[in-house]
Amino acid sequence: MKDFLKRKDIEFSLKRYGIDALSAMAQGLFCSLLIGTILNTLGNQFGIELFKMTITTVNEIDYTIGSLASTMSGPAMACAIGYALHCPPLVLFSLIPVGFAANALGGAGGPLSVFFIAIAASECGKAISKETKIDILVTPLVTILVGILCSMALAPWIGKTALQLGELIKLATNLQPFLMGILVSVLVGISLTLPISSAAICAALNLTGLAGGAALAGCCSQMIGFAFISFKENGFGGLISQGLGTSMLQMSNIIKNPRIWIAPILTSAVTGPIATCIFHLEMNGTAISSGMGTCGLVGQIGVYTGWLNDIALGIKSSITFMDWTGLIMISFILPAILCPVIHAVVKNAGWVKDGDLKI
User: 206: closest CA among 285, 259, 274?
Assistant: First the structure.
């Protein structure tokens, strides 16, 4: 059995599923749902006709370029997971209907359903791939049947569980915005810097509202925080790559000296409750935006999109000066001030030395 699994490149490990597959799923979600949301926002806010116009109508539903991209989020996530798991072509392409089924049947918890079901279908497809003389029939048949049958049996339950867990976190944040603001901000911020996907976690749990705002605060504290405290070592290139890219670039340095992580984590513990208790910052855009921080300013675009959605629904009358102040303070100013101050204390204590943050 070990030889068979090795030959088929089937590896049951935390790295393969918890890091590689999860990170790939976030990329698939980014390239479909998130890009679609951004295109729709650009079209509606700046009057770009190409992004506003109806491309096609299916079952009396009008689709723009953005909404077409968003609709394909299930297949995009499944194919991304299959790619991360090194699926052969016939398995990879068969994941398209699997991802669509898992996402559709999973409801609000669709991303989490896609994650588990795409992994199961991928590994089953890999196991049967090239084992018969009619591979072109058997491999897609096995992959699709396993995926869709699992979707029918498990996706609604997985989706419901993910939704309930997400709602529990959101409810707890509304009831205890200070404590949960700290907890959510710190944990999601840590997951952003770890080689896993905070965006996928937020999407899987449908983390929006105040909890989404706290998550955004934690991610921004990590990205902007590391960008500023490492400016001496990494210059403007490091400032941009970490501040608008990812704080994951510091992971190898964290392994060498975990104490360089103290300042960003403590900063997120401060900005989280400020976001929830003072600015009442909510992420009512796409849930994946909650875990993106300042990466391509996706988190900020998500908050702005949420404001527009609330205005359209009559929940919010207008975007206020306090709204913009809260978003800018939490996303940029507070992390840029607090993190270097805390890091200076850590450095004076002798826990961190020059060069520890060089990427």
Answer: 285
State the amino acid at position 307 in one-letter form. Answer: W
* Inter-CA distances, 355 with 16, 78, 106, 246, 351, Å: 31, 40, 47, 19, 12
Beta bridge pairs of residue 58? 61
* DSSP bridge pairs for 61: 58
Q: Strand 56-58 relative to strand 61-63: parallel, antiparallel, unpaired?
A: antiparallel
Question: Following DSSP, what letter does each residue of 141-189 receive, concatenated?
Answer: HHHHHHHHHHHHHHHHHHHHHHHHHHHHHHHHHHHSHHHHHHHHHHHHH
Q: Are 37 and 29 in contact (CB under 8 A)?
A: no
For residue 291, what is the DSSP state? G
Give Cα 26 distance to the centre of its chain.
Answer: 5
Tens digits of residue pLDDT in 3-43? 999 999 999 998 899 889 988 888 898 888 878 888 887 88
pLDDT tens figures, 220-246: 999 999 999 999 999 999 899 899 888
Question: Residue 99 has what pLDDT?
Answer: 97
- Say yes or no to pLDDT of 166 above 90: no
Termini Cα distance of the chain:
41
**Both tokens of residue 87?**
């699926």
Mean pLDDT across 147-174: 91
Q: How far is CA 138 from the centre of its chain?
A: 34
* Inter-residue contact 221 to 242 (CB < 8 Å): no
Whole-prediction pTM: 0.78
Residues 6+ apart with CB under 8 A from 84: 16, 20, 21, 23, 24, 25
Q: For residues 278 and 274, give the distance between their C-alpha atoms in angstroms, rounded to a whole number.
A: 5
Other Cβ atoms less than 10 A from the Cβ of 328: the count is 13
